[in-house]
Amino acid sequence: MRIDVESVAWQVNGRTIIEDIDLLCEPGTFTGLLGPNGSGKTTLLHVMAGLRRPSRGRVLADGHDLHRMSGGDRARAVALVEQDASTNLDLTVRDVVGLGRIPHRGRWAGAPDDPDAIEVAMELARVSDLAERRWPTLSGGERQRTQLARAVAQRPAVLLLDEPTNHLDLGHQLDFLTRVRELGLTTVAALHDLELALGFCDRLVVLDRGRVVAAGTVDEDVLTPELLAHVYGVDASVEKHPVTGRPHLHWNGPIAGTVHA
Ligand SMILES: Nc1ncnc2c1ncn2[C@@H]1O[C@H](COP(=O)(O)OP(=O)(O)OP(=O)(O)O)[C@@H](O)[C@H]1O
């Protein structure tokens, strides 16, 4: 599924949080949404997931306005994995993953439910061993993998991930993003780890104070030293990795007095 974000803005209490956002995600591509704390990544993902209605502009999913779709149609199209999914419900992992099947059940689902969807999703997110464990007892990383399984069980065409690896160790980070890529869905992930973004994404989009300040493929010099200095306040550069040939980040440290309050 192709996603077009057209001139989107979102305001709250008279304050503009994101503005003039244009984003094109071709079917099956992986877009990394980058930017410092508070730059608007989560807000944009929430608008793209249909949780927030844009104050201006629109989001098109294969040409259809996402915010005019029924909740069921939207949930079958787009799944969101939140940054820190919290629920106080005393559910098992299998129950939480099963929540992803709700849009596929009932009279209006259009097709019979797939009995294997939950097990397949748990296998993919490597939480099958945790199936009977209760959600409140899980570690941060186990919760993150369970939320991926819930999103995969939803069988969406578009996967939105908000800091999906922030609780994962290095091995699980690489495994998680490899598996997400293998799903072949149109994926947009907010990422703080620029090295992971360079390693896994097709395109990068950088937000700063609610606006897109740079965008392009990973090979297109999006993360220039000037941008890294201006947006993140760091002295860093992207170089070609001698073994993989992929771009990777080399940093020297913060630039005094440049990190935004
Ligand atoms: N409902 C709201 N009411 C008021 N301010 C909000 C609301 N939602 C977001 N904001 C503000 O909008 C700005 C952008 O927030 P957002 O969570 O989108 O940033 P982010 O790039 O995801 O940040 P981080 O990297 O820290 O997770 C922040 O200053 C935040 O405080």
TrEMBL record:
Source organism of this protein record:
Nocardioides daedukensis
Query: Which part of the chain is the ABC transporter domain?
Result: 3-234
The family database entries (CDD domains) matched by this protein are listed as: ABC_Iron-Siderophores_B12_Hemin (cd03214)
Q: Which Pfam families match?
A: ABC_tran
Instruction: Give start-end of the signal peptide.
Output: none
InterPro entries assigned: AAA+_ATPase (IPR003593), ABC_transporter-like_ATP-bd (IPR003439), P-loop_NTPase (IPR027417)
Tell me what this protein is called: Iron complex transport system ATP-binding protein
Q: Which UniProt keywords apply?
A: ATP-binding, Nucleotide-binding, Transport
> Could you state a single Gene Ontology molecular function term?
ATP hydrolysis activity
Superkingdom, according to UniProt? Bacteria
